[in-house]
Amino acid sequence: MADISDEELMLMFKYGDLSAFDLLFEQYRSPLMGFLVRMLGDRGMAEDVFQETFLRVARFRHRYEPKARFRSWLYRIALNCGRNALKERGRQGANVLFLHRKVSTAAGEDLELLDQAPAVSVSPLKRLEEEELKERVQLAIAQLPERYREAYILYELQGLKYEQIAEVLEIPLGTVKTNLHRARRMILDLIRPYVETEDGQRAG
After folding, report:
1. Which residues form the domain of 160?
2. Is this prediction's pTM over 0.85?
C-alpha cells in the first residue's frame, strides 16, 4: 500500500478496512506524539491525548470526506483534544518547561524531541553553546501565547504548509502568516539577551 495516499487509506477505513487504520496509526504516531508533547509539555498527557485522537478518528470515520486532507483533519482533532485536556487540568502549556526528555510513542519507541547532536568535528565548547541556545529557543517557544505557539510548532517543527495550518487551526491564511511572523519575533526577542553576549559571556 506504499502508493496509496492518506486520504485513500482513510476512505478504506471508513468503509471497513481495519488494516488501513493500522497503517495510518503507524505512519502518524511519531510526528503526532512530537506535536502533542510540544503543545502540552507533559508526556503522560500527550499519550492520553494521542490515544483519544485516534479513538475519535475511529469513532467519527463516517464523517470524513476526501475533500479534507487527512493530515489536516487528524491534527485538528488532536489540537481540539489537546486544548480540552489543558482546560480540564487547569494548565497552561506555555508555563511548562519541557523538551529535554525522550517520550515514548504508543508502540513504546523513543522519540527524540531535540535535534540530533552536532557533528563530531564540532568542539566541545561550541557544542555546549549550541545546546544551550537550543534549550533557550525551546523555552522561548513554550512561553509563546497559545495561538502563536500552535502555528509555530505546526510550521517549523511539523512541516505543515500555510494552507494546512489554516485548515487545522480554522483561521484565515493571512492570520497564519501573521501569527508565525509574531512568533518568530517573540522568540528572537526572548533569546536576544543570550545571543548578543560578547566574548562567550552569558547574559543572566
Report:
1. 115-204
2. no
